[in-house]
Amino acid sequence: MLIVLASSYDEAARFWVENWTDGDVALLTPKDLSKIGWRHYLGSLEDSTAVIKDEVISVEKITGVLTRLPCVFEQELLSIVEKDRPYVAAEMTAFLGSWLTHLSCPILNRPTPICLMGTNWRPQQWIYAASQAGMSVETHHQLISLKAEPEPVKIPSERVSVTVIGDRYIGEVDPILGHQAKKLAKLAGVELLVVHYNRPEAGAYFIGADLWLDLKSLEITTAILEYFSGK
């Protein structure tokens, strides 16, 4: 069983899970953590259980996890008393971090101490890593002042994206850019990464990177399932 860990408001994740027929795929949201049946024993997967589709199952039946949730947000916990939501959200995030870390199945991506989705660097960190991966990067200036108003983030009107999944990349770009994207993912320690350039030709400038893939792309969702099946 493939698990998609996502927000209750993640329409793309819900649509994919509900309409995918080639394999057993289930959606797991924060509200499912409040259901009776969860058991998490460190170092003992055979005794650990999860509640998936309102059923208690052994975690050994989970064949892979796609994580689309950076943390548990208190706005999702409508069944929890309002004043307790920040605490419960923090506890759920900590639980998921430990739970995901100790699963033996493939995970896209494994959590880090600050993000359930994997390495979630600041723009400056991505730029530095991109330069280490051989990408062309633009000079980045940052002004820190108590009086100055923050400058709005400039989003290029045109850009192309490359999605790295395991040892492959998806995107209509020069192969050099594709291989650089794979190298950046390796430097970041993730198996799933979306890298953005200003154009598809070799020598394009690196714009940014994130962990949020397009589940509306059949090519990408097929690649995800092939990654988990070992193809």
Characterise the protein shown here:
The protein has 231 residues and is of the alpha/beta class. The strands form 3 sheets. Strands 2-1-5-6 form a 4-stranded parallel beta sheet, covered by helices on one side. The protein has a 4-stranded antiparallel beta sheet with strand order 8-7-9-10, sandwiched between helices. It has 2 domains: 2-108, Rossmann fold, CATH 3.40.50; 123-210, 2-Layer Sandwich (D-amino Acid Aminotransferase, Chain A, domain 1), CATH 3.30.470. It contains 5 helices and 10 strands. It starts with a strand and ends with a helix. The protein is globular and about 50 Å long. The longest helix is centred in the middle third of the chain and has 18 residues, at 85-102. The mean pLDDT is 91. Strand 7 and strand 8 (168-170) form a beta hairpin.
Q: Tell me about the largest β-sheet.
A: 4 strands, parallel
What count of domains describes the coordinates? 2
Helix content: 25-40%
- Topology, number of strands: 10
**What share of residues are in beta strands?**
15-25%
Overall body shape: globular
Question: Regarding CATH, which class of the largest domain?
Answer: Alpha Beta
Radius of gyration of CA atoms, rounded to a whole number: 19 Å
Strand order across the largest sheet: 2-1-5-6
- Cα separation of the termini: 16 Å
Order of helices and strands: EHEEEEHEHEEHEEH
Number of helices: 5
CATH topology descriptor of the largest domain? Rossmann fold
Give the uncertain stretches in residue-range form: none
- Named at the architecture level, the CATH assignment of the largest domain is 3-Layer(aba) Sandwich
* Arithmetic mean pLDDT: 91
Which class of secondary structure composition applies to the elements? Answer: alpha/beta
